[in-house]
Write a structure and sequence with these properties.
It is built from ten helices and 21 strands. The longest helix has 17 residues. Helix 5 packs across helix 6. 26% of the residues lie in helices and 26% in strands. The chain starts with a strand and ends with a helix. The protein is elongated and about 85 Å long.
């Protein structure tokens, strides 16, 4: 665990660190600063010390020093923007319920923000038994310092066994900061979660070595067990308006001037592709033969109002940007319709799209693996089949 070290010879007793600490963990005893049990090792005091008398030392804590039996329940971080909970958080509530049932414990939400009671109620409707809610004006918008401070306080006080986050831009930043602060493990970008029937440990599965193998990771000696999970890996649970649950409220002892970052403005940047939320995706693979031939894929996607995807082979060849890649090392998608053109269907690609509602495969090789999971298969040259589909869809859609 971490330790805050105080150099008694260098300390001048100026008190700058005491004023800076957001948790009241530092106090003056005579001319010397002292640290108490409230310290979360955030490092804020180190930055303001004018004589560099404070330092943070992290040391390994022996496994027997952690009483794993004190940790219980499955927590899901409830990510939200404005009044809407992120879909990945709702998906994780559905999967979290399965984990909690396997362990015989509660499913809890971890929610932070300002005026977000409605999100707490919504999390309960989607499966949470309890929601740990921390509200403060400094939590109105996501910032690493304030959110991580709130999460660390909750985790230290209530000791969850498992904490899972969406593998979003926010979730990855947030989970990494929390894990390093409380000195536990974190498995990133998981595509599968399960409970080991013998050890009751969380089995965290993710692609490794460029997606060529699937690694299952266990966190045996630290708690909580933490993971981030890609959006669309798990199905969205059903909303149940009859569900009720408990909301536990906690205060964040942090003021605005104690947060190191300030939000000046938001700039809306046009997104080139949004595969995660697309209901129709048309993907191209090695069978297209070159980047210029993706024009036919784009045309079909435009006619259907869908997004353009690509296999890893097409991305590795430089035919399409990485943002379009579907598969273990790209995006995991769950559209209503997925059209695979010139994609053989390697296991790595299937892992990213096999949960699509309807899969249409177009390939001239009748033995291509993609046909084994396809709802509809067309054995044909894609350069003949796709233009025919475009013309037919234009007629049907009146375009």
């Amino acid at each position: 665990m971490a330790r805050l070290l105080i150099d008694e010879e260098a300390c001048t007793g100026c008190g700058a660190c005491v004023e800076e600490c957001p948790f009241g963990a530092l106090e003056m005893k005579g001319d010397m600063v002292m640290v108490n049990e409230k310290c979360t090792f955030c490092g804020a005091c180190i930055d303001v010390c004018p004589v560099e008398a404070l330092s943070l030392e992290k040391e390994a804590k022996e496994a027997e020093g952690i009483d794993i039996s004190e940790y219980k329940d499955v927590w899901v971080f409830i990510e939200h923007k404005g009044e809407k909970i992120a879909n990945v958080s709702l998906e994780l509530l559905g999967e979290g319920k399965k984990l909690a049932n396997a362990l015989g414990c509660k499913l809890c939400g971890m929610l932070m923000g300002d005026g977000v009671d409605h999100c707490a109620q919504e999390a309960i409707k989607y499966g949470a038994d309890m929601v740990y809610l921390t509200e403060s004006p400094v939590l109105n918008e996501y910032r690493t310092d304030s959110y991580a401070a709130g999460a660390v306080l909750l985790i230290k006080k209530y000791k969850p066994d498992i904490v899972i986050f969406g593998a979003t831009t926010q979730g990855r930043d947030f989970a990494g900061t929390v894990a390093t602060t409380i000195y536990t493990g974190l498995t990133a970008d998981c595509t599968g979660l399960d409970i080991d029937s013998e050890t009751k440990l969380l089995k965290q599965t993710r692609p490794a070595f460029g997606g060529n193998i699937m690694a299952t990771i266990l966190c045996q000696k630290r708690r909580p067990q933490m993971a981030t999970v890609r959006p669309k890996v798990f199905a969205m649970p059903e909303r149940d308006d009859s569900r009720t649950g408990e909301i536990v409220r906690e205060q964040l002892p942090m003021s605005e001037d104690q947060v190191r970052t300030k939000i000046l403005d938001f700039s809306q940047v046009a997104e080139t592709v949004n595969l995660v939320d697309a209901e129709i995706i048309v993907s191209g693979g090695r069978g297209l033969g070159g980047p210029e031939n993706f024009a036919v894929i784009r045309e079909l996607a435009n006619v259907l109002g869908g997004a353009v995807g690509a296999s890893r082979a097409a991305v590795d060849a430089g035919w399409m940007p990485y943002e379009h890649q579907v598969g273990q090392t790209g995006r995991t998608v769950r559209p209503k319709i997925y059209i695979a053109c010139g994609i053989s269907g390697a296991i790595q690609h299937q892992a990213g799209m096999k949960t699509s509602d309807i899969i249409v495969a177009i390939n001239k090789d009748p033995e291509a693996p993609i046909f084994k999971i396809a709802t509809y298969g067309i054995v044909a040259d894609l350069f003949q089949a796709v233009p025919m589909l475009i013309q037919e869809f234009k007629k049907r859609l009146g375009k």
